[in-house]
Amino acid sequence: MSNVVLExxxxxxxxxAAVSNVDLRVNEGEFVTLLGPSGCGKTTTLRMxxxxxxxxxxxxxxxxDIVSDAARGIFVPSERRRLGMVFQSYxxxxxxxxxxxxxxxxxxxxRPNAEIQQAVAKTLRLVEMEGFAQRxxxxxxxxxxxxxxxxxALVFEPKVLLLDEPLxxxxxxxxxxxxxxxxxxxxxxxxxxxxVTHDQSEAMSLSDRVVVMDRGRIQQIGAPEEIxxxxxxxxxxxxxxxPNLLDAQVTGCSRxxxxxxxxxxxxxxxxxxxxxxxxxxxxxxxTVMVRPEDARIASANVTNAEQGLRWFGRVTHTTFRxxxxxxxxxxxxxxxxxxxxxxxxxxxxxxxxxxxxRQVAWAVPNPNELKS
Amino acid sequence: xxxxxxDRVRExxxxxxxxxxxxxxxxxxxxxxxxxxxxxxxxxxxxLSVYPLSMxxxxxxxxxxxxxxxxxxxxxYQDVLTRQSLVTLANTIGISLAKTVPxxxxxxxxxxxxxxxxxxxxxxxxxxxxLPFFIPPILTAMAWGMLGNxxxxxxxxxxxxITGSSDSPINVxxxxxxxxxxxxxxxxxxxxxxVDAFRAMDPGLEEAARMCGASRWRTFRTVTLQLMLxxxxxxxxxxxxxxxxxxxxxxxxxxxxxxxxITTEIYDSINQRSPPQYQYATAASFVIMALMxxxxxxxxxxxxxxxxxxxxxxxxxxxxxxxGRWRWVTFGFCVLFFVATVLLPVGQLLIGxxxxxxxxxxxxxxxxxxxxxxxxxxxxxxxxxxxMLLGLTGATLTMxxxxxxxxxxxxxxWRGRALIDAMAxxxxxxxxxxxxxxFLWGFALLPHAIPIYGTIxxxxxxxxxxxxPLSVRVMSSAYAQLSYDLEECSRVHGASWLQTMWRIxxxxxxxxxxxxxxxxxxxxxxxxxxxVLLYSVGSExxxxxxxxxxxxxxxxxxxxxxxxxxxxxxLFRWLQLKMLKRVVR
Lengths: 372, 585
What we know:
The structure holds two protein chains of two kinds.
Chain A: E1 4-13, E2 16-26, E3 31-35, H1 42-50, E4 57-62, E5 65-69, E6 74-75, E7 83-86, H2 98-107, H3 113-126, H4 142-154, E8 160-164, H5 172-189, E9 192-197, H6 200-206, E10 209-214, E11 217-222, H7 224-229, H8 234-239, E12 244-255, E13 261-267, E14 270-276, E15 285-290, E16 296-299, E17 308-320, E18 324-331, E19 334-341, E20 351-357, E21 362-365, H9 367-371
Parallel strand pairs in A: 3-9, 3-10, 7-8, 8-9
Antiparallel strand pairs in A: 1-2, 1-4, 4-5, 5-6, 10-11, 12-13, 12-15, 13-14, 15-21, 16-20, 17-18, 17-20, 18-19
Helix pairs in contact in A: 2-3, 2-4, 3-4
Chain B: H1 5-8, E1 10-11, H2 31-61, H3 75-80, H4 83-116, H5 122-130, H6 137-147, H7 154-163, H8 175-199, H9 203-211, H10 216-245, H11 248-254, H12 262-271, H13 278-303, H14 327-354, H15 369-376, H16 378-411, H17 417-425, H18 432-444, H19 456-481, H20 484-492, H21 497-526, H22 531-534, H23 542-551, H24 555-584
Helix pairs in contact in B: 2-13, 2-17, 2-18, 4-5, 4-8, 4-10, 5-14, 6-11, 6-14, 6-24, 8-10, 8-11, 9-10, 10-13, 12-13, 13-18, 14-24, 15-24, 16-17, 16-19, 16-21, 16-23, 18-19, 19-21, 20-21, 21-24, 23-24
């Protein structure tokens, strides 16, 4: 097992920068996910680690070896990087049996036959495909192909495992199951893993750390919960779910502890406290993020919500979603999404108050302010 | 783990920046060896296509036959610009048009019957209907020469026997004969080109039209046919080009009736006139090349921006129309086509081979003498040996070359791949006879240390050149179907470029390779127009042997050899169909 280090890694296609200045360190045994919308450069980043694409700037190391350094003209071809990889299409070779597919990495390394038999059997057992060894590869279902692809990537005990949207071709139920199984195997083997997906819930549930990318740049690196609750900027905040993003002006600022500050903000028709990561000068504008599931709906004349924020408005739309009920409240600042328990039943036209505690109202700097 | 950094890290030359970076890194294997490979490929292709083409230009300006000292002038082109030549040109285009239009109609009808209706035994019928495409045209030409002979042809005898009159209504030595013989090839050829478009059409597109309220006929007119139009247009143009290139039909049925087209004109002026008019023939060849080029340009313009939207490659099961009792009519139609194009000529060959004299079918004339003569003739065995040798080596080399070209043009982003692709495609525009003339000049002008002319290698090179466009097409589509992941996955998991080529790419593409091989083999077996210019004593192939026998009036031995070739055709076609089944899986 090894760590993977990317230092100022860039990739340009002509004038277009697909990836720019990516700094990332994946520790030994860690599961790191590259997350972002399509075209954000996450797959290109993975392919550069795999050696399928050459970085036009920066340096990539796996373990103690530099595998690619644009400045010094070093480039180790894919086959000598000792990686395992699962492709989005699985890339199961259709002319081979399951056994031969999994045995391939060992065969090209000219391992003795007895060792191959043993290693393949062991790995197929790991992915619960031992009964399918002699099946021709095209006769497998999507989930089975995925298991074979994972087995093939694991069989020669690679330094690092790379996965390129491996679950995106499966149906929802299978996707959840395969994701959990895969995470269990990864934990058991302690394999350093770099995973690419555009699916936020997949990234949340599987990863030790998530790297959010957009337009070729890293937006934020952190544990899933941290990224979800304390996004670094508006892009990251907007990427997960459908949060309420409200413009506001800072009127006061005080530090709570080493990692949080308390801001007093004022918006159109509302004012109150919220939290942020860094100090903001009074008078500057911020975006306050409130997740729909963190907001609560109370009757119109609630007054004792000193600790948090309040918006008055009228219910304009409700949607029953099974576990929750989505309610849209028209307030002075605009529409406010609230995910309430499905038992609550507010009728359209009801006057209500949206109540949000300070701890879940998170302010991020406005991009415009950053520029100035 | 104990490997030192030094042998795992490879220095890349400092110039490898910039444009080279726009491709997956693993494809830039070794810069030097890649350049060498490209160079070799380019040189081989240049010799096979650019060289004979430029020799055409050279020869058309050269006043004496190849290999003799002469001056340069424009006499050749002056001869081409005579009234007589213009009539020949008009004949060529007219005949090709006259056979293309009915061929398209028939092919669409057959494709619709076999792909979209519930006609019984469609699978078998499809094999039978396409069979004429694989029979060497020289065989059917000779068979029809016997069947439709105005004096003693079997069809005329039959007509006289039935009606009691002494008229002979059928004469294949006419415009009609030339067109009819061409159609026997162009119908199955067009059918093969368009039937997949019919079959692979998403039925949803038609159903949507029906849901919008269009009738069945209106749907066919406004949706089905419109979607087929790109495939139909390109098929029709291809068929038209093939018609212009056609040599056998006008040679057998046109020349005796005084109908000349451009290919037979070239052949006659080299082989039948004394002294041979090389400059005129070469100039005519160059003009026909220019004509082909114009047609191809036209095709590109016509088809630009139109894609085969309907053909998705996914296995749809298109809506099959229930014909009721009419399905036996469509069945009969297909059978009739098979009878007219295969059964009649093969039957004629069979009958002809057992009777003492062609045209006189009496019980006491039955004989096996012709078989004895053929099997005892060294000329036959030499031709057979040459055809087999050329077929086996030619098909193999062509497919290897085509596979290499296709790989470079489809799977890599190497600079120069477009040029390689274009050079490999160039012979596609050259009729066999034109390529033969080009090589005739080319071989004569080679240094004496390379004596190709007059050997069997001359034929091999011509076949390679003629077959390469086809092999590139077959292998390109095979590679295009393989996702890059399959290749990349192998590299990531430790296989070198060579290992990947051998264990993944070739292993996956070999069924296409085999199918293409058989196609090229068929092409070599039937080739006549280039062979007849490039053969010399000792290097005759079967088709040339047949032509010589026919010219000597030996129709009976022709029948024997023809039957043997038919046997080969059926055998190889059967093998090919078996392999195709495995490809489709």
